[in-house]
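Standup, Tuesday
Yesterday: got the pipeline producing structure tokens again.
Today: sanity-check two examples.
Blockers: none.

Example 1:
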Amino acid sequence: MRRHALSFVNALAPLVLVLSIQSVSFGQSVTVKAVEDGFSALFDGKTTTGWNGDTSVFRIEDNCIVGGQLKEKIPHNFFLATDAEYNDFELRLDFKLIGANTNAGVQIRSERIPDHHEMIGYQADLGQKYWGALYDESRRRKVLIGPDLDELNKVLKLEDWNSYRIVCKGPRIQLWINDFQTVDYTEAEKDIPLKGKIAVQIHGGPAGEAWYRNIRIKPLK
């Protein structure tokens, strides 16, 4: 009898595991399966549900968001942005850039400029000489702080997948690429918003592609 009971428990184990991975949501983000403890996915790997932007520039391929193309010059910056806004959070994603001199980035605490292609706000930068830097897009229009590129290049994988970790809590912003910390910045200006949209960018310029996948977020209290 005991052996039969154990067999029944073992048979239920996979079902219990499946049921324990419950669908969760954060704000207005897409409701999907939890990927890590406390995180929920912002991108479902199949659609741009919960996002908005120019779908002639951004496409879904191999469970990734892909911005840009490799055939001709990109006329200006393009952004695929979340519908929802976020304040204090940890954001994790994977990225790779393809093409010579491709530039891209991840907008945080940002807003779209009305009747314009640009966004305004912080950008976790990617590409060229800006890898891992914190740039202020369309506002102060400058790099606020950046990493030691010689050290970052020791862990950076060009034209291959890398990880970005972004933590925003109050006025403090921290960035890591492949677990190497590139930025630890505290905003000193009191009128800078600490809440906004998240977006992925392909920068205007030479032909190139920015690939993004596994985009997930966790609220911080």
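Example 2:
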Amino acid sequence: MSFSIEGKTAIITGAANGIGRAIGRHFLDQGARVMFADMDEGGLAAEIGEETDDDAPARYFAGDLREKLTINNLLSATIDAFDRVDILVNAARQILPSDPLDPDDESVTVMLEQNLTASLRLSQLVARRLIKQGEEQDSGSLGSIVNISSIAARRTHPELMGYSVAAAALDQMTRSMAVALAPHRIRVNAVAFGSVMSASLQSALNENREFREEIEQNTPLSRIAAPGEVAEAVQYLASDSASFVTGQIMTVDGGRTLIDPVSAPAH
């Protein structure tokens, strides 16, 4: 079965490093045209190059995607570069610690704005463009939106309450938009990942060497995934091979959400 995205145009957010960058690179390798988007202009320029010619399959856009004007400019830049958009991957995310008992802790508000609201606004904007592009197309999918979520939506870590709440909200947004956009033949899905070697996880492992062992002991496949393994799951959901898949949260976690780390009592 082919999961081809060749010739498609994709916007990938959070693409200056980690999982977003891996998705963008993978899409390029699979023949897609990619707009790499992130706040980190230096990281984008280092990845894509300061200058690209008019025929280049990769471009980049730097800006704060929490701003409405910025996301409008991102879509305009994509259309100017590639004439259309077919796929949106919302991979921009932020992780902050939370204190559930501190009334002055703003982490939930910050996480919702960064990890949910920005993705929602961009998804709405891209969806309208997809509908416009498909006005003369009688059948077939008009496009695909894939959100990058986390198994934190289903696990309870009070110290990451803001991130967990935002991930759970993103999953529900995925389902709601899938139903709302189904009549327009636009599919919306998400990939919820577990322990993947993202930039944030690498930083955490550098600070706490024992953390790797703890992760591996609580993951049935006993390892940390490479970012490319998430990219391949995203490719499937973005491709026409998933033409009857919408509103789904695909879990890529090595089995971590299948087990309870507390052992059964001895008899």
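Quick observation on example 2: The CA atoms of residues 35 and 59 lie 5 Å apart. DSSP finds eight helices and seven strands in the chain.
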